[in-house]
Amino acid sequence: MLLVALAGCGGGGGSRVFAPPPVNDQLFTPNYIRSLTGVCHWNHLPIRVGFTFPGDWQQIYPADQDLHIRGANEWNQSGRQVMVVVVTSGQIDVPVSFVNQRELGGTAQGMTSYTYDTTGRMLTASIRIAHRTRDGALIPASDVQSFIAHEIGHALGIIGHSPNSSDLLYPVHTYSVTQVATNLDLNTAMSGYPTYFGRAIPLDHGIAPLPSREIITGTIE
What 8-state DSSP symbol labels residue 101? Predict the structure, then answer.
């Protein structure tokens, strides 16, 4: 079994790590919220994800042109509200690019950079996905699809990883096994958006005004 770690990740930038305010971990269960640094939220859903492809994309993945859409749709399971849409123009919340693994450093196969403020609101997120190994070998489409789905989970606001090996946000990926979002993954992400899923008061209701909203930056694999 060949494994590649997606973890060993950064949790925040600057002089200190600021955890987002806690969310209600009883609204959507089961979940793994208590294993995370925190769960953030955008001020809207769905988030708009835009992809920039290598010039040879059609040649290297001729039978898997829509692998990025399948990866994004792991967060849009049947019977649930849509959390992610893939867009090709207009406003993009989360840009995604494809790189050689060398650019990510270490053994990382995906990396999400993000900023959020002290209310837990996501402000920016960008994703880089390795589609070639450090020596230039092409990474199979099923694995790239899994990397995309994993990193979009972080971009939605999951700051940390699941302790459960079956979850999409588990920090270790098994090559040649397409990872899918589990009920725990979906419930964890949904917990940042209770109003959108009809469970609670508006996202920012009751948050005390701050003299200045500190901006926290970080990267996570």
Answer: G
- CA proximity to 192, closest of 13, 27, 50: 27
* Domain spans of the chain, in order of start: 3-199+214-220
**Alpha helices per DSSP H over 15-118:** 57-60, 67-72
pLDDT per residue over 53-107, tens digit each?
Answer: 999 999 999 999 999 999 999 999 888 889 999 999 999 999 999 999 999 988 8
Query: CA-CA distance, 5 to 61, in Å (whole number)?
Result: 24
Domain 3-199+214-220 has CATH 3.40.50.300: no
Neighbours of 15 (CB within 10 A): 5
Task: Measure the CA angle with vertex 128, ends 126 and 131; round to 5°.
Answer: 155
* Rounded-to-integer distance, Cα 43 and Cα 120, Å: 10
As given in the structure block, the two tokens for residue 75 are 């967060």
N residues, the chain: 221
